[in-house]
Amino acid sequence: MKVLYVTSEAAPFAKSGGLGDVAGSLPEALNSRGAATRVIMPLYACIGDEWRSQMTFIEHFYVTLGWRKQYCGIFMLKKGKTVYYFVDNEYYFKRERLYGHFDDGERFAFFSRAVAEAVARLEWRPDVLSCNDWQTALVPIYMRDMYSYTELGAIKTVFTIHNIEYQGRYSRAILGDVLGLPEGWYNDGTLEYREDISLMKGAMLTADYVTTVSPTYAEELKYPYFAYGLDGVVRSISGKFRGILNGIDTEYYDPATDADIVANYSADDMAGKAACKAELQRMLGLAIEPDTPLVACVGRLVAHKGMDLVLARMDALMSLGVQFVVLGTGEHGYEQFFRVAQQRYGGRVAACITFSEQLAHKIYAGADMFLMPSQKEPCGLSQMIAMRYGTIPVVRETGGLKDSVPPYGAEGGRGFTFANYNADEMVNAVWRGAELYRSSREDWNKLVKWDMDANFGWSESALEYRRLYASLTGKQ
Ligand code: GLC
To answer: How far is the CA of 377 from the centre of ligand 1 (A)?
Structure first.
């Protein structure tokens, strides 16, 4: 079986969030498990010479987009077992950020159309196109529109929802002019969404199978609270929809070999973790207190990550006698709040309002608890990374957080959890963690070891994707 994994980002080439991590590790895991998988993504300006010098040019052609004819070059590179194709067009992709441009709809329509065209030209013909999020949502639609009655019509499409909040919603006016699609796609309801078009809705209806990134999120999406208007669509496709929990790259995230942390350690030899904590406290200007529980929050500072709960009870959290570090950027109000908190709680709160992969590793290693009070969390990878580094998650029971962090006290418990989106419940969960840390270091260390030994790699989930692809194509 041959799978072309279609994505708008993949680590280490270009990454803005969890999708980049998944696309940077799942294809390699599939290749190791017998599903020949290649990746196709845009050739962004941020992809540096260290990679470009390894690429070979394959071919170029022109892509039709409404009345436009746009150049498209295809480059190729092999990393590990995985072949990557890069779609080159400097007008669309030679820009500073990956997303957030006025013409994102056109940029990713171009990318999706280019993928469909490339599939027809490449010598390597995939059996499955595995697409991700709204940026690639047009791929299954174009495949239907362009190739239904050709031999390429046999190619199956899978669409994975990493976050249903971002749907690619545009004015109907772009349907013919930019997307180059006939009105029928709107009139029959496939793309229609509140008099606009929703690319994600279109992909959910046209793909042969739809997945999302955790079983609990798949359930949650049947309800309006989680589905941003698409709960009806989710319910209507229940026969071709399920959740498969993401994994993490356990080689890259490994405290035993991580070069970004001051001392390496493993579940069997934990000495290095204490050194990492002391170094982190020193670096961040926190009091160097080995016995004070250090709580970390790493991620985008936006509402659905649960930041309002932290804001509402910052004083209560600090009254638990913990230290607190936050790393991330996001909404201005949250950023300012944490800057002020750092001044109010000198030596106890550190606000790192930036994004730094290296600092993130130092925090995963140096902290004791990892707080993720998300309102919604399709999967979440940070809690798994934290556990791999022996940092105990404190999470709300939603989406992938619920699937990966059973509550401490129950069988196999891995962290401190709370059910409702409620700030007092969150404080209570942090309190339970801090209590265990202080009252029984032996039990705490057992929990740390249990979490570090958990298997959050791709082994199970990659096989599940493989089984899914096999059931769709009839090929092994
Ligand atoms: C999105 C989701 C996150 C998930 C990631 C990878 O960023 O918000 O929960 O872990 O995609 O699937």
So the answer is: 7
What is the pTM (predicted TM-score) of this model? 0.96
- pLDDT value of residue 426: 98
C-beta pairs of 48-57 under 8 Å, 24+ apart in sequence: 51/13, 51/77, 55/86
Distance 163 CA to ligand 1 centre (A): 6
Give me the pLDDT at residue 179, please. 97
pLDDT in tens, 252-303: 999 999 999 999 999 999 999 999 999 999 999 999 999 999 999 999 999 9
Residues 318 and 179 in one domain: no
Q: Is the CB of 19 under 6 A from ligand 1?
A: yes
Per-residue pLDDT at 12: 96
- Specify whether 26 is located in the same domain as 72: yes
For 238, the domain range is 2-247+459-473
| Residue 350 backbone phi and psi in degrees, to 5 | -125, 125
DSSP-derived 3-state class of residue 61: strand
Q: Tens of pLDDT along 417-433?
A: 999 999 999 999 999 99
At residue 301, the pLDDT reads: 96
Closest ligand 1 atom to 246 CA? 12
Cβ–ligand 1 contact at 162 (below 6 Å): yes
| Ligand 1 center–CA 186 separation, angstroms | 29
Residue among 385, 420, 392 at smallest CA distance from 322? 392
pLDDT at position 26, please? 98
Which of 62, 30, 23 is closest to 213 using CA atoms?
23
User: Which parts of the chain sit beneath pLDDT 70?
Assistant: none
Question: Is 463 found in the same domain as 418?
Answer: no
Q: Which atom of ligand 1 is nearest to the CA of 162?
A: 11
Q: For position 346, which CATH number holds?
A: 3.40.50.2000
379 lines ligand 1 (CB under 6 A): yes
* 346 CA to centre of ligand 1 in angstroms: 33
Residue 88 domain-assigned (yes or no): yes
Could you tell me if residue 253 is inside a domain?
no
Considering the domain boundaries, does residue 153 fall inside one? yes
Residues 430 and 326 in one domain: yes
Q: Whose CA is nearest to atom 1 of ligand 1?
A: 162
Q: Is the CB of 30 under 6 A from ligand 1?
A: no
For a mutational test of ligand 1's pocket, the pick from 162, 200, 385, i.e. the residue with the most ligand atoms closer than 8 A to its C-beta, is 162
- DSSP string across 180-220: ---THHHHTSSSEETTEEEHHHHHHHHSSEEEES-HHHHHH
Ligand 1 midpoint to CA 146 (Å): 31
Instruction: Write down the pLDDT at residue 463.
Output: 97
Question: Would you state the pLDDT for residue 452?
Answer: 98
Two tokens at 201?
Answer: 């809705």
Q: Give the number of other CB atoms < 10 A from CB of residue 104.
A: 17
